[in-house]
Amino acid sequence: NGCNLLRRSGWDIPGNSILPVPVQVLDYASCCSKCQGTSNCAAFVYSPSTKTCQLKRTASGGVQKNDSITGYYDPTTIAFPGVFERAPRMLSGVTFSIQSNVSQWHSVGYYAVADVVVEIKVLAKVGASGWSVQIGCHSDDLSVSLRHSVDPRALRDVPESRLSRPAGRDKRDSGHDKGLGTQRRPPLLYLTKSLNSSDTVQISLHYGGLLFLRSPDASGCSITVSLNNVVLTPTYNLIDSNRATNWQYQQRNAEGLWADIAGRYIVYNIPSNTLLKMKSAELDSVLQLWDSAVLAHHDLRGTKPIRRERVVSDEQPLLGYMHAGYPIVTMMDVANPNSELFIFYKQYQNKSNPCGGSTYWGIFHEIGHNMQRSWWTFDGTIEVTTNIFTVHAMDTVCKVRLGIYDWRNDQISLTRTYILQGAIFDEWKKNPAIGLLIYIQLAREFGWDSYKSVFRYYENIKPNLSTDQQKMDYWIETFSRQVQKNLVPLFNFWGFPISKSTKNATASLPTAKISDQLIQIAPQRYTI
User: Fold this and answer.
1) Is the pLDDT confidence value at 146 over 60?
2) How far apart are CA 18 and CA 32, in angstroms?
3) Closest to 172 (Cα-Cα) out of 322, 348, 355
4) Where in the chain is the domain with CATH 3.50.4.10?
5) CA-CA distance, 474 to 45, in Å (whole number)?
6) Which of 16, 142, 193, 222 is most buried per CB count within 10 Å?
7) C-alpha dihedral over 9, 208, 40, 333, to 10 degrees?
8) Taking the domain 6-72, which CATH number applies?
9) Which residues, 6+ apart, have CB-to-CB distance to 178 below 8 Å?
10) What is the mean pLDDT of residues 38-58?
11) Please, are residues 40 and 206 in contact by the beta-carbon 8 Å criterion?
12) Helices within 195-330 (DSSP H only)
């Protein structure tokens, strides 16, 4: 029936109701869908005779009742996001203060235990309203996509949910995009409540999770809160001058199941047990590397970070192996300390390849998505222009320079076929690995400084471009002016449709003399 909760016929759960009164539904599956789409729903009770549905905050305290069917999550069988092996130490009367100039999540350093009511009281607040409290870092809502198919094209224009699959060099995509047909974790693992009032707010989530304060999108904001019924959780902040001492204390005393590990420009949420044995110096080293990658992305685009990128490991991302947005969401293999995919992997770091492990391309790629501008990203390049930033970071941060033939043999073969068969642009748009090659050619021929100048020009001008043709023409003209070379032959080689006005605008510039291995496949195509 499409319901992944455990089922028990002839069973009712008195009290602990979420809805004021039972609601009419079509069937058991419809009642289950309502529960799966409600953050704090631990169980539901369906009455076949009246076709009514009631949602429950807990699955415990049940009694026999003939005309009732109960569906429930069994917390003892839920491996994700995890359960405590023993009762943790609960803390109350702790305070937390934060200043903020932008919308983002702020870890308070504590964890909410499953089904335990956390109390939050606002002690002081300055600036704009709109603060809220959140339990849980896993904000991908699977409830809708478990009932309906998800078209990724419909989500890519949503900044908080821009999605992607690994492309190009990432060889892990086919084995990890398991889709949403099989539910591997509860659909909703987070809950938020407003903190606009000075009253004490109570919040609980059946699965528990990291506690955050979410700030409004305004400058000059600050808030101070007191917290009751929370558990100390591992946190690390690279800008904390006492982080080494604090980390030693947390290694001994922090019991929260998930950690919040922050550099200056990026923060990771992964299971606590994956990194509690790491030393402060090791965390510093890896976080500084990730920070340098974020800065490299912004340096290429000509911007500065306004908030930390956030990366959350999840058993089941909404779509694909990873996706971009806030937060970036990854699969759990990057949180496995025994894997070279581990986010904090250090075993093979060295001066010639400081990035060591192999998870960097994927996360660089997702940060690249967060860098994309619609001015220079047109149909067929969503998975391409992101990798301009990926390749740049691999080159400047990881010291891994990608040549044309570093790609998989099958991709090179497809590229050769594409060119020899006439370079039909609609086919170019279907293969991101082929699509990226012209951007690598531009970097190799004219250097990263040319990209920096072009992107800064866009950031300053903010052109009003409404069609793909306008975007392509503007890119060709802008890059040509920057390098003082006519690049029309290069884009013509790859099959780009180029307007006559763009050909005229670049006609006075000397033609760029490019004759690499790709051009040699069909040199006659390299023409105005």
Assistant:
1) no
2) 14
3) 322
4) 6-72
5) 59
6) 142
7) -80
8) 3.50.4.10
9) 184, 316
10) 91
11) yes
12) 243-253, 280-301
Rounded-to-integer distance, Cα 64 and Cα 68, Å: 8
Model pLDDT, residue 405? 52
The amino acid present at 416, given as its one-letter code, is R
**pTM for the predicted model, two decimal places:** 0.83
List every span in the chain annotated with CATH 1.10.390.30.
372-525
Q: Could you count the other beta carbons within 10 Å of the beta carbon of residue 392? A: 23
Rounded to 5°, angle at Cα 412 from 487 and 363: 85
Instruction: Report the alpha-carbon distance of residue 347 to residue 479 in Å, rounded.
Output: 41
C-alpha radius of gyration, the chain, whole number: 26
Handedness of CA 407, 411, 416, 419 (dihedral sign): negative
Residue type, 251: Q
Q: Could you tell me which residue, 467 or 115, shows the higher pLDDT?
A: 467
Instruction: Give me the DSSP letters along 136-191.
Output: -S-----HHHHHS---GGGTTT-GGG-EE---TT---HHHH---SSS--S-S---E
CA atoms within 13 A on the CB side of 138: 28
Phi first, then psi: give them for residue 57, nearest 5 degrees.
-80, -20
Percent with pLDDT over 90 in the chain: 71
Which has the higher per-residue pLDDT, 477 or 80?
477
Token pair listed for 144: 């809708």
Among 2.60.40.790, 1.10.390.30, 2.60.120.200, 1.10.287.110, what is the CATH number of 372-525? 1.10.390.30
Task: Judge residue 86's burial from the number of C-beta atoms within 10 Å of its C-beta, 0-12 exposed, 13-18 middle, 19 or more buried.
Answer: exposed
| CA pair distance 356, 308, nearest whole angstrom | 23
Tokens 């080689």, located at residue? 493
The label of the residue with tokens 């789409």 reads 37
Considering only residues 444 and 161, tell me which one the structure prediction assigns the higher pLDDT.
Answer: 444
> Would you say the C-alpha torsion 65, 66, 71, 73 has a positive or negative sign?
positive
Please report how the helices 243-253 and 280-301 are oriented relative to each other, as an axis angle in degrees rounded to 10.
120
Paired residues of 323 in beta bridges: 163, 329
Q: Is the pLDDT of residue 490 over 70?
A: yes
Q: In 3D, which of 59, 49, 57, 56 has the Cα closest to residue 24?
A: 49
> What does the block give as tokens for 200?
């004490």
